[in-house]
Amino acid sequence: MSESFAAFLYLISGVLFILALRGLSHPTTSRQGNVYGMIGMGIAILTTLALATPSAGGIGLIIIGLAAGGGVGAYVARRIPMTAMPQLVAAFHSLVGLAAVLVAAAALYSPTSFGIGDVGDIHAQALVEMSIGVAIGAITFTGSIIAFLKLDGRMSGKPIMLPMRHAINAGLGIAIILLVVVLVVTESTFVFWLIVVLSLILGVLIIIPIGGADMPVVVSMLNSYSGWAAAGIGFTVGNLALIITGALVGSSGAILSYIMCKGMNRSFISVILGGFGGETAAAADDDIDRSVKLGSAEDAAFLMQNASKVIIVPGYGMAVAQAQHALRELADLLKEADVEVKYAIHPVAGRMPGHMNVLLAEANVPYDEVFELEDINSEFAQADVVYVIGANDVTNPAARDDPSSPIYGMPILEVDKAKTCLFVKRSLGSGYAGIDNTLFYKDGTMMLLGDAKKMTEDIVKSMD
Q1: From the candidates 285, 338, 384, 393, which is the catalytic residue?
Q2: 393 is catalytic
Q3: Which residue of 239, 311, 355, 456 has the fewest CB atoms within a 10 Å radius of its CB?
Q4: Which of 224, 176, 223 is nearest to 202 (CA)?
């Protein structure tokens, strides 16, 4: 295959990737977007294989690698529950980072295979690109592993604050930059691996201080990092598909991180430099009555059946309990009783961007009933009942009313303005951010303590 024809095919795959991102921007076109992405990746892989001229043994290794990777990917995709999607995404990001490190190492030890020079005489530009790619890749690898452990509950979601962490991180960053310069001058393999080691350490130190409330930003940020790592290595090996794909993933991840931070009223820099979440629950305020009104499934069924408008607010509690199908059944019964039903989604509900939308789509909730924060917030005051199912931090009025709260200024779903707020939760404990929710103690709130799925199913039974 000629280089010009390969470049044309890579361009086609790049266009398909752009169409994939466009399709994934809305639930109704997401399936088509996935198809575009798969076709584009297939073209890129086949083009790369057609350009390569490996030996018979090399072709065999490539086939084994494709079969192994594809087999594992298919198995994981079929077995992973929707509730584990955030940690799966984090795990995939770590693999992208690791791949960038391994490809950079291969280019360093065998530069002639990549057309970037000879051993001991690698082009300076390639060394710079390689260094940047390997540093970002190593940071992405360990950072994503820490994010996976936190999201999967294998590590505490609370921030781990090391003394002088900012100075340590800055020192590591400066050391990596200096080592990149040394690598360009000396082409030392020792310096290369030293960059890798320091970057791996920095990846851990960047993520461990970030608490659970900032996890959606972390996931999108690591997504961006993985893209820039791929783009850097793409320049090194001269692969147009890697450059295009990496740039698309890197820029889209960065934009998504900005959107997440805006949805939390946080600056991106403040999240990276320390984050928040896991703080000690706020002390009781003398102006707040800490007593709560407890209710039952029968109470909730009565209130909802006699309402004219019900807004459902799903959160991570719904995801953990796998309550989305029961919730859809509840909504169907309400609509049969001529009750208007809408769903309200906060941009950072759950553990990754779009987490709630994916779960509702799995339960075949109509897309036209699902609304984002800015489109639904004005309607809470007209709602007779709001059914909050595990969405703790994103409904906390302290973010609006208490300047001393760590989440003050974060836009929330103003469910407290409804006539009645039914809040399903296992206990009165704080949410992932570690902040006490003052919504529990308001006059219009009725707490439904218990498993979200069982409580919703009991409400459905009470409506029969």
Answers
A1: 393
A2: yes
A3: 239
A4: 176
